[in-house]
Here is the input.
Amino acid sequence: MSLANVPSVLLVDDAHDMLEMLRRSMNAMGLTPFTANNVVDAIELVEHGPVHLVITDLNMPEVSGIQLVRYLGEHFPEIPVLVITGYPKLEDAVHVMKLGAVEYLVKPFTQQELRDAVERVLSTLGGRTHQPAAQEEMREHFHGILGRSHPMQEVYRIIDRTPNNRATVLVTGESGTGKEMVARAIHYNSTFSTAPFVAVNCGAIPDQLLESELFGHVKGAFTGAITNRVGFFQAADGGTLFLDEIGNASPAVQSKLLRAIQDKEVTMLGATKPQRVEVRLISAANNDLAAMIRQGTFREDLYYRLNLIHIHLPPLRERVEDIPLLVDHFNQKFSKELGKRSLRIPARVLETFACYPWPGNVRELEHLVHRLVILKDSAAAMDDLPAHMKMEAPRSILPDSMMSLAEMERQHIRRVLEAEGQNKTRAAAILGIDRKTLREKLKGLG
Ligand SMILES: Nc1ncnc2c1ncn2[C@@H]1O[C@H](COP(=O)(O)OP(=O)(O)OP(=O)(O)O)[C@@H](O)[C@H]1O
Ligand SMILES: [Mg+2]
Here is the structure.
């Protein structure tokens, strides 16, 4: 769709006064508004286009705005969608951001907030590269994050949704799965990547210091406050504040954070006036926040505020097809650092890696490869692996077990097919052979 000089905006809301207010605002911004008071009419208008932007309420009788976002995501992925939602319905916002909405506004909002959101969305027009999922290519890495497995493709796809908005992101996953890497990737992939990325470990700051650490203090606010000092929020203004280990934030800190998010402003300790701050918040947790909410140790309202977009990083044992890629990367990286040739890693060692549960995930793998590169000169061997890891090696591949190459190949092909849900195209790609060869091998091996 070519962009006309004046972008046209489709406004969808069942409430007449809201529609009228939106229409006037769009006119005032020099845009051409069209209106629809239900989803069916909205789709009709989009089909007859051109529509450059859709602003829709989520909560409508009959067909909900969620259906509209889904439809647009599937049929008109190039049209950005701004959704409007009421606070108790924030879970829906989480859902629609995943379906393809690029911005959301929580009711009630000011004219200025509406204008800012529309401008942000319009600034992305023409730069959108969304493709229908079916055409999406397999990526092996993204901003330094490595992985070609399906869960990692999903992670890249969600990060692709984040560059032009400041929706909060919650990254969950076991220790060492790459949560901080993902947070940095989101920041450096965003339109505000030149603004600061500030990381705070919420569990590491004592309660009595946290307020001044987060929000800053003015001179004389307490004994020892000899100068004005900005907090993490002000330091990250315009950029990203990464709240690591959010599950360890004390109740006092949780309520302060909630207020800062709701009001979009913070008050320095000892100051009389609040300051407006514009930060994207990314939080990370390796504990089960849902369980903490049930136990009453984590605030549900804060959880929904932080979790507009959710990225879950699966443990390494659930994406073993990423292991060879990671091993290769760390092998090259550490060898280069030490000025050595990279190590040969025998198939037996890789097989053992595939069976080991990796409680420390990618970090554990990284450390192990680092150690092997330091200790060895040409090749790693089974004997170099820690004892607890060798125990995990399947019996059939332990050194004392004799097996023909054909048998080994048969077992390996079966394992890869299983891991890829019997998808031959993906299995062939992992095995480094074409589909035809794989078919022949399957026939030959019975
Ligand atoms: N997909 C990946 N590709 C490359 N390196 C990775 C990947 N995932 C993690 N790493 C590496 O593993 C280490 C741990 O990553 P990171 O600090 O992001 O994990 P984390 O989930 O924040 O862990 P923790 O919960 O312990 O803080 C880092 O050195 C990072 O470079
Ligand atoms: Mg971390």
In short: The longest helix spans residues 323-337. Residues 127-135 have pLDDT under 50 and may be disordered. The domain at 137-314 is CATH 3.40.50.300 (Rossmann fold). Residues 318 and 357 are 9 Å apart (CA to CA).
